[in-house]
Specification:
single chain, 249 residues, alpha/beta, TIM Barrel, eight-stranded parallel beta barrel, globular, binds phosphoenolpyruvate
Length: 249
């Protein structure tokens, strides 16, 4: 079987402070989790602090612009300079609350890669899209937006996170079978363009993952780790989730 990179990523959203970085640094040493890349996505001002702890880090978004007169925006190159190695692109909160379109996200994806950051492209359907049988159509549109504009080779150095919108922050996680079904759909979709890239592409699951459900989710053949929101703010819970990824390598 192809050995894919295992990743457990914590998305702090607009939460956390210097004290939380300190708590993480005491609780989590990357060497405790062999073969698993543990990544923390704090708010921008904490990236350099997290980088100093030795835990891999990244930004929750980047600007689609190069440096210039864009008040309030943050350039991907600066994120990289602070010690980050990843950026989330297209988290559902960015898509919904900040009206980020597939087209705009392609530009952000490019800026992240140009700066040497690995983009984690977030995709996922809403509850009403799932109920009306649109899950595959939506995911396909979100993934193909990148492949058709940039070419499938761009996915060689990236990660996809499947995050059903109805499962984010709601406590309603997808069942391991539901998640596996969509992860396989994504891998098969990428395989239509390039089988080798599809086989090595890490696909993470996100949506109410916690230390109770992570083991079964990570045991699925096409789930290569998780993107964790709420539980990533609690060092002990996050640590247990990382441990379940080690157990499922
Ligand atoms: C997220 O925001 O990416 C997420 C998955 O949140 P939660 O784990 O809280 O559902």
């Amino acid at each position: 079987m192809t050995q894919r990179k295992r990743i457990v990523a914590g998305n702090w959203k607009m939460n956390g402070n210097l004290a939380l970085v300190e708590a993480f640094s005491s609780a989590i040493q990357p060497a405790q989790f062999p073969q698993v890349e543990v990544v923390v996505f704090p708010p921008f001002p904490l990236i350099a602090q997290v980088a100093k702890t030795g835990i891999a880090t990244g930004s929750q978004t980047v600007s689609e612009q190069d440096a210039g007169a864009f008040t309030g925006e943050v350039e991907a190159k600066l994120v990289a300079e602070l010690g980050a190695s990843y950026s989330l692109i297209g988290h559902s909160e960015r898509r919904t609350l900040f009206n980020e379109s597939d087209e705009l996200l392609v530009s952000k994806f490019v800026k992240a890669q140009e700066a040497g950051l690995t983009p984690i492209l977030c995709v996922g359907e809403t509850e009403s899209e799932r109920e009306s049988g649109q899950t595959e159509t939506v995911i396909s549109r979100q993934v193909k937006a990148v492949i058709e504009e940039l070419g499938v080779a761009t996915l060689k150095d990236s990660v996809i996170a499947y995050e059903p919108v109805w499962a984010i922050g709601t406590g309603k996680t997808a069942s391991p079978e539901q998640a596996q079904q969509v992860h396989k759909f994504i891998r098969d979709l990428v395989a239509q363009f390039d089988t080798e890239i599809a086989a090595t592409l890490p696909i993470l699951y996100g949506g109410s993952v916690n230390e109770q459900n992570s083991d079964l989710l990570f045991a699925q053949p096409d789930i290569d780790g998780g993107l964790i929101g709420g539980a990533s703010l609690k060092p002990d819970s996050f640590k247990q989730i990382c441990e379940s990824a080690v157990g499922n390598v």
